[in-house]
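Let's do one together. I've listed all components of the complex below, 224 residues spread over two lines.
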Amino acid sequence: KAGVTQTPRYLIKTRGQQVTLSCSPISGHRSVSWYQQTPGQGLQFLFEYFSETQRNKGNFPGRFSGRQFSNSRSEMNVSTLELGDSALYLCASSQGPYNEQFFGPGTRLTVL
Amino acid sequence: QKEVEQNSGPLSVPEGAIASLNCTYSDRGSQSFFWYRQYSGKSPELIMFIYSNGDKEDGRFTAQLNKASQYVSLLIRDSQPSDSATYLCAVTFSGSARQLTFGSGTQLTVLP
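Okay, and this is what the predicted structure of the assembly comes out as:
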Protein backbone atom coordinates (compact mmCIF):
# COMPACT_ATOMS: atom_id res chain seq x y z
CA LYS A 1 0.00 0.00 0.00
CA ALA A 2 1.33 3.43 -0.84
CA GLY A 3 2.02 5.70 2.08
CA VAL A 4 0.87 9.22 2.77
CA THR A 5 1.99 11.63 0.09
CA GLN A 6 2.46 15.37 0.47
CA THR A 7 3.10 18.01 -2.15
CA PRO A 8 5.10 20.06 -2.61
CA ARG A 9 8.05 18.80 -0.57
CA TYR A 10 9.71 22.21 -0.37
CA LEU A 11 8.40 25.74 -0.61
CA ILE A 12 9.96 29.16 -0.32
CA LYS A 13 7.63 32.11 0.14
CA THR A 14 7.90 35.70 1.29
CA ARG A 15 6.09 37.39 4.14
CA GLY A 16 2.50 38.29 3.39
CA GLN A 17 2.02 35.63 0.74
CA GLN A 18 -0.27 32.65 1.13
CA VAL A 19 0.45 28.99 0.58
CA THR A 20 -1.54 25.79 0.00
CA LEU A 21 -0.19 22.38 0.94
CA SER A 22 -1.67 19.09 -0.21
CA CYS A 23 -1.95 15.66 1.42
CA SER A 24 -3.14 12.35 0.02
CA PRO A 25 -3.81 9.76 2.75
CA ILE A 26 -3.17 6.05 2.65
CA SER A 27 -5.83 4.31 0.59
CA GLY A 28 -8.82 3.53 2.80
CA HIS A 29 -7.88 6.05 5.46
CA ARG A 30 -10.57 8.63 6.10
CA SER A 31 -9.04 10.79 8.82
CA VAL A 32 -6.34 13.35 8.08
CA SER A 33 -4.50 15.42 10.68
CA TRP A 34 -2.02 18.23 10.19
CA TYR A 35 0.91 19.07 12.43
CA GLN A 36 3.57 21.76 12.49
CA GLN A 37 7.12 20.90 13.55
CA THR A 38 9.67 23.55 14.52
CA PRO A 39 12.92 23.27 16.48
CA GLY A 40 11.57 25.53 19.21
CA GLN A 41 8.03 24.24 19.66
CA GLY A 42 8.37 20.66 18.52
CA LEU A 43 5.42 18.87 16.96
CA GLN A 44 2.12 20.70 17.41
CA PHE A 45 -1.36 19.71 16.30
CA LEU A 46 -3.05 22.00 13.80
CA PHE A 47 -6.36 20.34 12.90
CA GLU A 48 -8.04 17.08 11.98
CA TYR A 49 -10.54 16.27 9.24
CA PHE A 50 -12.87 13.32 8.96
CA SER A 51 -15.66 12.92 6.42
CA GLU A 52 -14.91 16.34 4.95
CA THR A 53 -15.50 18.07 8.30
CA GLN A 54 -13.01 19.66 10.64
CA ARG A 55 -13.42 17.71 13.88
CA ASN A 56 -10.71 19.19 16.05
CA LYS A 57 -8.50 22.26 15.98
CA GLY A 58 -5.29 23.14 17.75
CA ASN A 59 -4.20 26.46 19.14
CA PHE A 60 -3.23 28.24 15.94
CA PRO A 61 -4.47 31.56 14.52
CA GLY A 62 -7.22 31.73 11.93
CA ARG A 63 -4.61 32.26 9.21
CA PHE A 64 -4.26 28.48 9.26
CA SER A 65 -7.15 26.68 7.62
CA GLY A 66 -7.81 23.48 5.82
CA ARG A 67 -10.32 21.32 4.07
CA GLN A 68 -10.94 17.73 3.10
CA PHE A 69 -12.39 16.43 -0.12
CA SER A 70 -14.74 13.52 -0.71
CA ASN A 71 -11.80 11.27 -1.65
CA SER A 72 -10.22 12.06 1.77
CA ARG A 73 -7.45 14.16 0.26
CA SER A 74 -6.78 17.26 2.30
CA GLU A 75 -5.31 20.68 1.83
CA MET A 76 -4.14 23.23 4.33
CA ASN A 77 -3.78 26.92 3.66
CA VAL A 78 -1.75 29.55 5.44
CA SER A 79 -2.54 33.15 4.61
CA THR A 80 -0.51 36.27 5.28
CA LEU A 81 2.66 34.30 5.95
CA GLU A 82 4.94 35.34 8.81
CA LEU A 83 8.59 34.48 9.36
CA GLY A 84 7.54 32.28 12.27
CA ASP A 85 5.51 30.07 9.96
CA SER A 86 8.73 28.55 8.64
CA ALA A 87 8.42 24.91 9.64
CA LEU A 88 7.98 21.33 8.54
CA TYR A 89 4.27 20.72 7.96
CA LEU A 90 3.28 17.12 8.43
CA CYS A 91 0.14 15.34 7.39
CA ALA A 92 -0.91 12.12 9.11
CA SER A 93 -3.64 9.73 8.07
CA SER A 94 -5.54 7.08 9.97
CA GLN A 95 -8.37 4.69 9.21
CA GLY A 96 -10.59 6.54 11.62
CA PRO A 97 -10.17 9.42 14.02
CA TYR A 98 -9.16 7.18 16.94
CA ASN A 99 -6.75 4.89 15.07
CA GLU A 100 -2.98 5.01 14.78
CA GLN A 101 -1.67 7.88 12.68
CA PHE A 102 0.90 7.50 9.92
CA PHE A 103 2.87 10.49 8.76
CA GLY A 104 3.74 11.66 5.28
CA PRO A 105 7.19 12.99 4.34
CA GLY A 106 6.20 16.58 5.12
CA THR A 107 6.39 19.90 3.33
CA ARG A 108 9.24 22.16 4.41
CA LEU A 109 8.10 25.77 4.21
CA THR A 110 10.58 28.61 4.39
CA VAL A 111 9.25 32.15 4.74
CA LEU A 112 11.69 34.93 3.83
CA GLN B 1 -2.03 22.30 30.68
CA LYS B 2 -1.78 18.79 29.32
CA GLU B 3 1.84 17.88 28.83
CA VAL B 4 4.09 15.07 27.70
CA GLU B 5 7.59 15.08 29.14
CA GLN B 6 10.65 13.31 27.79
CA ASN B 7 14.31 13.51 28.71
CA SER B 8 15.79 15.26 25.67
CA GLY B 9 19.09 13.41 26.05
CA PRO B 10 21.23 12.86 24.20
CA LEU B 11 21.25 9.22 25.27
CA SER B 12 24.19 7.13 24.14
CA VAL B 13 24.36 3.33 24.38
CA PRO B 14 26.86 0.85 22.94
CA GLU B 15 25.84 -1.45 20.13
CA GLY B 16 24.05 -4.53 21.45
CA ALA B 17 22.91 -2.87 24.68
CA ILE B 18 19.37 -2.11 25.81
CA ALA B 19 18.23 1.46 25.28
CA SER B 20 15.56 2.70 27.67
CA LEU B 21 13.48 5.73 26.75
CA ASN B 22 11.02 7.27 29.17
CA CYS B 23 7.95 9.48 28.95
CA THR B 24 5.56 10.91 31.53
CA TYR B 25 2.22 12.57 30.89
CA SER B 26 0.03 14.86 32.89
CA ASP B 27 -3.50 13.53 32.29
CA ARG B 28 -4.52 10.47 34.27
CA GLY B 29 -7.41 9.89 31.86
CA SER B 30 -5.16 9.45 28.82
CA GLN B 31 -6.04 6.40 26.74
CA SER B 32 -3.59 5.93 23.87
CA PHE B 33 0.19 6.03 23.77
CA PHE B 34 2.51 5.99 20.81
CA TRP B 35 6.21 5.90 20.07
CA TYR B 36 7.52 7.42 16.87
CA ARG B 37 11.06 7.34 15.51
CA GLN B 38 12.34 10.30 13.55
CA TYR B 39 15.59 10.26 11.64
CA SER B 40 17.25 13.59 10.98
CA GLY B 41 15.54 15.35 8.07
CA LYS B 42 12.75 12.77 7.88
CA SER B 43 9.19 12.53 9.14
CA PRO B 44 8.11 10.54 12.23
CA GLU B 45 7.61 6.80 11.78
CA LEU B 46 5.23 4.89 14.05
CA ILE B 47 7.05 2.04 15.78
CA MET B 48 4.83 1.10 18.73
CA PHE B 49 1.47 1.85 20.25
CA ILE B 50 -0.02 0.67 23.54
CA TYR B 51 -3.43 1.15 25.11
CA SER B 52 -3.43 -1.14 28.18
CA ASN B 53 -1.28 -1.34 31.28
CA GLY B 54 1.64 -3.70 31.00
CA ASP B 55 4.13 -4.63 28.32
CA LYS B 56 3.74 -4.94 24.58
CA GLU B 57 6.53 -6.50 22.54
CA ASP B 58 7.25 -6.22 18.82
CA GLY B 59 10.57 -7.62 17.70
CA ARG B 60 13.37 -5.77 19.46
CA PHE B 61 10.95 -3.13 20.82
CA THR B 62 8.95 -3.31 24.05
CA ALA B 63 6.55 -0.61 25.16
CA GLN B 64 5.65 -0.48 28.85
CA LEU B 65 2.67 1.42 30.22
CA ASN B 66 1.87 2.23 33.83
CA LYS B 67 -1.25 4.40 33.96
CA ALA B 68 -1.19 4.72 37.75
CA SER B 69 2.25 6.32 37.54
CA GLN B 70 1.40 8.12 34.27
CA TYR B 71 4.49 6.67 32.71
CA VAL B 72 5.23 4.99 29.40
CA SER B 73 8.59 3.67 28.25
CA LEU B 74 10.22 2.14 25.22
CA LEU B 75 12.94 -0.48 25.45
CA ILE B 76 15.10 -1.28 22.44
CA ARG B 77 16.98 -4.55 22.83
CA ASP B 78 20.17 -5.37 20.93
CA SER B 79 20.52 -1.72 19.88
CA GLN B 80 21.99 -1.11 16.44
CA PRO B 81 23.63 2.01 14.99
CA SER B 82 20.62 2.22 12.66
CA ASP B 83 18.47 2.85 15.76
CA SER B 84 20.20 6.22 16.21
CA ALA B 85 17.37 8.73 15.88
CA THR B 86 15.04 10.94 17.89
CA TYR B 87 12.25 9.03 19.62
CA LEU B 88 9.00 10.88 20.13
CA CYS B 89 6.40 9.92 22.70
CA ALA B 90 2.81 10.88 21.81
CA VAL B 91 -0.34 10.71 23.91
CA THR B 92 -4.03 11.27 23.28
CA PHE B 93 -5.56 13.06 26.24
CA SER B 94 -9.09 12.61 27.53
CA GLY B 95 -11.37 15.10 25.83
CA SER B 96 -8.92 15.39 22.92
CA ALA B 97 -8.79 11.81 21.76
CA ARG B 98 -8.54 12.83 18.13
CA GLN B 99 -5.20 14.62 18.46
CA LEU B 100 -1.70 13.55 19.39
CA THR B 101 0.25 15.59 21.93
CA PHE B 102 3.98 15.01 21.52
CA GLY B 103 6.89 15.18 23.87
CA SER B 104 10.01 17.02 22.76
CA GLY B 105 11.76 13.78 21.89
CA THR B 106 14.83 11.90 23.12
CA GLN B 107 17.86 11.78 20.86
CA LEU B 108 19.41 8.30 20.91
CA THR B 109 22.88 7.48 19.63
CA VAL B 110 24.00 3.85 19.38
CA LEU B 111 27.77 3.66 19.32
CA PRO B 112 29.40 0.94 17.16
